[in-house]
């Protein structure tokens, strides 16, 4: 049976991120990973039907006995086996990180042998996919639309003519669900064209997605809006 198959079997037996083996036997790497994947699912923050943000830092708590047993092979688990399976789980569920993946083992004297506890958090940063320069996090910005200012906070805002949009724009050139502004827990702000009829323009250029900063100018249909730093 492959490593990933064992992981999937372990995930099926997960209950609230805590696993207990009968007769206090040693934990298996597949159970460690199953606990992390379950924590991702539990803590997922839905932005829209195509995207959810999940924690990117995982502290895996183990009993002193299990910690000592797992430590010699922790490097392979943290840097090879776990990232491969987590990346697969991300793609299958449209999950996204606010920063790079981090996993650490923590010795926890409160735990009995055979038990696992995972604590997760979101650590701000940029998830790097290539060597190009990445935009820096931008926090506390506001969006002005037709004279009204809207704070840009997680998870973001939807723009369009539909009643369910966060910012409803009465403009015949704007699609019902025209665009989505996404704000990550780390403060990154992007705008995404939602397959609109007339397109999305940022700073005069038509784009499918763009990073927003103070001073960014957005145009959808006949409506113009701008991103500001508070106090300006």
What features would you describe in this structure?
With 232 residues, the chain is an alpha+beta fold. It has 2 domains: 93 residues, hypothetical protein PF0899 fold (2-Layer Sandwich), CATH 3.30.2320.60; 87 residues, Tumour Suppressor Smad4, CATH 2.60.200. It contains 4 helices and 18 strands. α1 packs across α2 and α2 packs parallel to α4. The longest helix has 20 residues. It is elongated and about 65 Å long. It starts with a helix and ends with a strand.
Short overview:
The chain is of the alpha+beta class. It has helices at residues 3-12, 29-43, 64-70, 74-93, and strands at residues 19-20, 45-48, 51-53, 57-62, 95-96, 102-107, 115-121, 142-145, 148-151, 156-160, 167-168, 179-183, 189-193, 200-202, 205-207, 209-211, 217-220, 223-228.
CATH superfamily of the largest domain: FhaA, phosphopeptide-binding domain (DUF3662)
- Please compute the radius of gyration using only Cα atoms: 22 Å
Q: Please report the number of helical segments.
A: 4
Q: State the strand order across the main sheet.
A: 9-8-18-17-14-15
Termini separation (Å)?
61 Å
CATH architectural category of the largest domain: 2-Layer Sandwich
Strand content range: 25-35%
Question: Which structural category fits the helices and strands?
Answer: alpha+beta
The biggest beta sheet is recorded as:
6 strands, antiparallel
Unreliable spans are 1-24, 125-138
Tally of structural domains: 2
What is the share of helical residues?
Answer: 10-25%
Please report the total strand number as a whole number. 18
